[in-house]
């Protein structure tokens, strides 16, 4: 289901980078800074809400696997709430470069090679 939902925007819209795709999904952080005040970062929530929901649900399922569980536990151990850790996995993973649900799909589609 997630693959089908991801293929539609990837084939319809040309994204210059995987970060552009993440911004399209609305999983990118939006700063609320003003002057010296550093505000909270919240999701921009632009783009299709259904795609965000599917990526979040895919991240929830992925955290139960041997590959993603250590990454999820790493973010939880560093103090991220459950939801924030799942959004990081849905968006991108700093602990393991190149491994993320949204970015992997965008990169695979732009390179036109099958996902291993």
Strand order of the largest sheet: 1-2
Proportion of helical residues: 40-55%
Structural class: mainly alpha
- Structurally, the number of domains stands at 1
Question: What is the radius of gyration computed over CA atoms, rounded to a whole number of angstroms?
Answer: 14 Å
Q: In angstroms, what separates the terminal alpha carbons?
A: 18 Å
The amount of beta strand, in percent, is under 5%
The oligomeric state of the chains shown is single chain
Could you spell the SSE succession in H and E letters?
HHEEHHHH
Shape: flat
Mean of pLDDT: 80
Q: Return residue spans where pLDDT drops below 50 for at least 5 consecutive residues.
A: 93-98
DSSP summary: helix tally: 6
Commentary on this structure:
The protein has 116 residues and is mostly helical. It has one domain. 54% of the residues lie in helices and 3% in strands. The protein contains 6 helices and 2 strands; from the N terminus they run H-H-E-E-H-H-H-H. The chain has a two-stranded antiparallel sheet with strand order 1-2.
Quick tags:
116 residues; mainly alpha; two-stranded antiparallel sheet; 6 helices; 3% strand
Reconstruct the topology from this structure.
Layout: H1 2-12, H2 18-25, E1 29-30, E2 42-43, H3 49-62, H4 69-77, H5 82-91, H6 101-111
Antiparallel strand pairs: 1-2
């Amino acid at each position: 289901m997630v693959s089908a939902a991801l293929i539609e925007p990837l084939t319809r819209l040309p994204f210059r980078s995987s970060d552009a795709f993440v911004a399209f999904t609305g999983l990118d952080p939006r700063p609320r800074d003003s002057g010296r005040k550093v505000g909270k970062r919240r999701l921009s929530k632009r783009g299709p809400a259904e795609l965000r929901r599917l990526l979040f649900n895919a991240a929830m399922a992925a955290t139960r696997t041997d590959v993603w569980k250590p990454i999820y536990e790493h973010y939880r151990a560093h103090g991220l709430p459950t939801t924030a850790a799942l959004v990081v996995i849905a968006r991108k993973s700093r602990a393991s470069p190149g491994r993320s649900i949204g970015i992997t799909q965008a990169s695979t589609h732009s390179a036109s090679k099958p996902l291993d």
